[in-house]
Write a structure and sequence with these properties.
The complex is a heterodimer of chains A (233) and B (136). By secondary structure, chain A is an alpha/beta fold. Chain A contains ten helices and six strands; from the N terminus they run βαβαβαβαβαβααααα. Chain A has two domains: 144 residues, 3-Layer(aba) Sandwich (Rossmann fold); 55 residues, Winged helix-like DNA-binding domain superfamily/Winged helix DNA-binding domain (Arc Repressor Mutant, subunit A, Orthogonal Bundle), CATH 1.10.10. Helix content of chain A is 48%, strand content 12%. Chain A has a six-stranded parallel β-sheet, sandwiched between helices. In chain A, β3, α3 and β4 form a beta-alpha-beta unit. The longest helix of chain A is centred in the C-terminal third of the chain and has 15 residues. Chain A is globular, with a radius of gyration of 18 Å. Chain B is of the alpha/beta class and 136 residues long. In chain B, α2 packs parallel to α3. Classes of the chains: A alpha/beta (233), B alpha/beta (136). Chains A and B meet through α1 and α5 of A and α1, α3 and α5 of B.
Amino acid sequence: MKLRILLADDHEIVRRGLCALLQKHEGWEVCGEASDGREAVEMAKRLKPDVVIVDIGMPHLNGLDTTRQLLQHDPAFKVIVLTITDSDQVIREALNAGARGFVLKSDAARDLVSAVEALQSNRMFFTPRVNDLVMAGFLDKGHAITRNEPPDLPILTAREREVTQLLAEGKSSKEVASLLNLSTKTVETHRSNIMRKLSLHSIRDLVVYAIKNNIIQIQMPPHLNGTTEGTMA
Amino acid sequence: MAVRILLVDDHPVVRQGLRTLLEGRSEWEVVGEASDGIEALEKVGSLQPDVVVLDVTMPRMNGIEACRLIQQTTPGLEVLFVTQHDSPQMMREALAAGARGYVAKSNLARDLLEAVEAVSQHRPFTALARNPQVQC
């Protein structure tokens, strides 16, 4: 029986590339594709894939919260997180969310097949940098990466995180209510609670919070003044 | 004669996705790939493509700078930007650098084939995800 894989990434071009990569492997089948986290959760519940590959930066529901919801529904789900960054915070959140694999998008062509093979054998797969951080955590008990320490931030509920992401993406309370099948009043209550818990005073503050805490991701454009930011010195 | 296309993006998985979409057309041929602006310039010289499909944000040299240099060294070579920067300002900069086309990655499957067809025939093509037809 083929290993069934569900892909979740908001860019179809990336999904096509991942599909082409994975389907070269005899014995694997991409059983579904989702373009945002909510769709991924719904499809995973319906299709029951063996492995779910989620991009961290997806609209409506990001990859970390998708992972949390999947595992809350069924702890047997095996999730690989794809990310453009391997910062300590992202790594910690992915591990705490329950991801069993962590692959940088830039290295997906090289690492994703190995990651799926690992999960197929009930092993985990992380980039070398993540392995180093996890080992450092085992060797140095002062390092928080392997301890389930809560972040130094007020904890939002899963629903509040969903609302935070949608508001940070620029949706109105009415639009959020429609997406989440809630009343506008309920969304506004969540919004008030979020702002109060986080001591925020404006949507702009909320957006900054969401970016800092990987609830939404942005990619900065290069400087356009004739210089080439990022060129080697 | 097939239209010769060079793919330039720092993510191999994106290049693979572009290739999968483009190779469905027999009149197009993906002749090579590059992962940054400097490699793109080298491959433009060695492979002589007709169209360069180019990302904006790349290491070593970004797409905008690469496009300017391509236009200086190989005028007439058509450049199509394919990028996640879904902004009119970025699009204007790209077109000012000499690109013939600009499409947002979020709607690529919808727009790419039409964009490559237009650009390969020296017609402009621009499409942002938020405003599919934006006047510059």
